[in-house]
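As a warm-up, study this chain.
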Amino acid sequence: MKPIVLGIFAALFFAVTFVINALMEASGGHWIWSASLRYIFMIPFLLLIVYLRGNLSLLFREMANHKKQWLLWSFVGFGLFYAPLCFAAAYSPGWLIAGTWQVTIIAGTLITPLFLIKTVTRDQVIIQRQQLPLKGLMFSLIILAGIALIQLDHLTNVSISTLLFGLAPVLIAAFAYPLGNRKMMELCEGRLDAYQRVLGMTLASLPLWLVLSVYALSTVGAPSVTQTYQTLFVAISSGVIATVLFFMATDMVRDNMPKLAAVEATQSLEVIFALIGEILFLSIVFPSPLALAGLVLVMAGMAIHSFANKNSTQIKNEKSAMHINA
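Now compare it with the structure written out below.
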């Protein structure tokens, strides 16, 4: 249950991204600065945390031993995740991006067969491909059905350009984030904690953010003071707090794909938190009865996800206890 709770709090802090990105776009801030400044600002905070925990040298050794993998999967997990989200903010409102982002629930389940699981027995080490968690996929579809209801009123009013430039990048991000996160978990094999992994991926993705920053500086100029402060807030709230909470939650269940799918499904609550934030700070229209029904369906799907995985854990524990007693 603890990973689910951590996932929910991560969703709350992640939702800040959608609301503030919408605010920055409304005030004329460029999407490149929204993306690159977030990760640049994250580095000193994470460096301080990891240094004070005495884990900095271990992180650097791990990164030195697997340079190409760190660069590749950090580019996928952070670069192909956040840059497309910020780009989409230039073409779509925050609620639409947050809603489309929930495709990551299905994406996290669909990429499961790309990973191997290692089982150690007395005689041998068995490596086999992960199976698609059909039960988790079914629960995820319930949540996505709720998301679809929330967005239904709005999708009929968007243009083709909004669909193309506002939704396609979010779909890329929805698959890139869980893929990069899981590949890094697979690479680290529990040797690094969540703080180390977030710092390592931020440092490894830094070349991308620096290149984008130089391009933005030469084309659109420096970011405004307001955008700089807003991006700093996003970096702390979403980049540090939310990412660390989410990575902690996924680390706890990294060897159990159904539970991992349940933790990733907690991110569906981002659309609810983002909707509340936009109502409070951007004065958007209150959701229709259809959208409210979607919210109820999302929460119901989350409750079923959590309950099913809790029951599954209890059954496994009971079977283990019976085996030991026998």
